[in-house]
Amino acid sequence: MKRFKIDTILFIIIISILGISNLLNFDKPSISKLENRALKRKPQFSLAELFRGSYLKDFEEYYSDTFILRDNLLKINRDLRYAVEFLGSDISLVTAYEDIQMPDKKSAAEKAEVLHPETAQSISDGKNTPSQTESSIPEPKAEEELNKDFGDGKDVGYWLVVDGKAVQLFKFNKENFEYYSQVLNKFSEKLGSDVKIYSMIPPTAANFMILKRYKGITDSQNDALAFLKSKLDKNISFVNVYDPLNEHKEEYIYFRTDHHWTALGAYYAYASFMKATGEEPIALEQYESINLGDYLGSSYTKTLDKSLEKNPDNVVAYKPFTDNEYFMYYGTDEKKTDIIDMKYADDIKNKYLAFMSTGGATWSVVKTDVNNGKKIMVVKDSFGNVLIPFLLPHYEEIYVVDARFYSKSVTGKNIVQFIEDKGINELLFVIYMEDVNWHKFMQGVENLLGS
Predict the structure, then answer these.
(1) CA dihedral sign, ordered 55, 56, 61, 66
(2) Are 66 and 144 within one domain?
(3) What is the pLDDT of residue 207?
(4) pLDDT of 163-175, one tens digit each?
(5) Is residue 421 part of a domain?
(6) 83 lies in a domain?
(7) What pLDDT is attached to residue 40?
(8) Same-domain pairing of 283 and 377
(9) Which residue, 113, 258, 279, 373, is most buried by CB atoms nearer than 10 A?
């Protein structure tokens, strides 16, 4: 009993010291280098938010995110978890919170210099509260538009780490997949026969790994895709990328430490898309490959698994040979940049951002020297970033939209009006399996249609 009292007192003393130290620490970090994400900002106090209950919730997240020695405590937690693994040697099942590529708290309606696209891939805690700058935008419903739900709520995800490879496990939600088809069918109805619509859904890597022992813990993505295809309007072309990826599953088509496909995997998906359009894909050998070096991606930053850290990926990009100009629009500001943006090549955790220079603008356009009159819009998540460079030889203009960044209050148009204004003839949706499976994400896509 005496030993128990001593342990209790010591525990209380340690917790008190850490708590007081945290309160006295006014130099709070804004970014976690360990997790490669922006940390929660201190919420602004207001009685309305307090009575609504959101202030205390936001402050709790801020306190947790900026707790003193947080990264060190996370490392200790990782090591303890690693020491008590129960699945066996080189195998672990990790629960982590899903995050999603999100704009900074300040909207895309603001200037480019305050959007911070460099951290867009990791930011996941914004609720997109309108700022003073946003409220000055002369759009009748600007405030309502900028408060739209970007699907930024936390969602639990599961990763199986086997032999230095992380696999995101898939659980089929039939209602969410049916909702995806309903959203695309609305696009088809509003755009009519003038715009050809394609649906491409990149699967997770789970179905392409040999997981016989753990087969029951992930659902069949092929079955989910077959269900979705049956719900799509007959005028929407379903691009089958599952089969070609499965044919090449022994190749390096998915990263080990990241949930994305590699440029090689994206190439096979591009080839399948071109066949769906009736064109021949360009041979991969015609592209110059660029080695960006070692990479520790999203799956590592979520799991902090040591076996992933010891087995980093290698990022290879394929440089477009088609002459082009790439313009990104942050709000009303124009930025000209490179499709393969080498400024991210030196950061081991951000190399994927090199593709389409993050792809996190309000909207973007690639203008090529292909004078065939063909214009396509790609509505995508981050999986589309590595696929788009392969489209250049086939289109005169390629418009790029991510529902999490597009703002009608900035462009003055919903997406249908935007398509009509630009004379776009094709619309390709490239949305990752888990984002299709996430209702809030697809709400953002539906919101593109506006009123």
Answers:
(1) positive
(2) no
(3) 80
(4) 788 888 889 999 9
(5) yes
(6) no
(7) 62
(8) yes
(9) 258
CB-based contact 368:322 (threshold 8 Å): yes
Nearest CA-CA partner of 359 in 343, 376, 337: 337
Nearest 5°: phi and psi at 413? Answer: -140, 145
Which residue ranges of the chain lie beneath pLDDT 50?
83-84, 86-89, 91, 97-156
The answer as to whether 44 is a domain residue is yes
Distances (CA, A) of 154 to 96, 97, 99, 393: 10, 6, 6, 39
Same domain flag for 58 and 161: no
Concatenating the DSSP letter of every residue in 350-363 gives TGGGGBGGGS-SSE
CA distance 67 to 61: 10
Encoded amino acid at 46, one letter:
S
| 121, 411, 448 from 145: Cα distances, Å | 22, 12, 10
Please tell me the distance from the alpha carbon of residue 429 to that of residue 186, in angstroms, as a whole number: 13
Domains identified in the chain, total number = 2
pLDDT digits (tens, 9 = 90+) for 193-238: 999 999 999 999 988 875 556 667 788 899 999 999 999 999 999 9
Which residue, 148, 160, 277, is CA-closest to 211? 160
Residue 154 has a pLDDT of: 43
Domain that holds residue 63: 1-71
Q: What is the pLDDT of residue 65?
A: 62
How far apart, in whole angstroms, are the C-alpha atoms of residue 263 and residue 252?
Answer: 9
Element (H, E) at 326: strand 324-330
Does the residue 57 lie in any domain?
yes
- How far apart CA 113 and CA 219 sit, in angstroms, is 43
Tell me whether residue 14 is exposed, middle or buried, using C-beta atoms within 10 angstroms of its C-beta: 0 to 12, 13 to 18, 19 or more: exposed
For 35, the enclosing helix (H) or strand (E) is none
Can you give the pLDDT at residue 209? 72
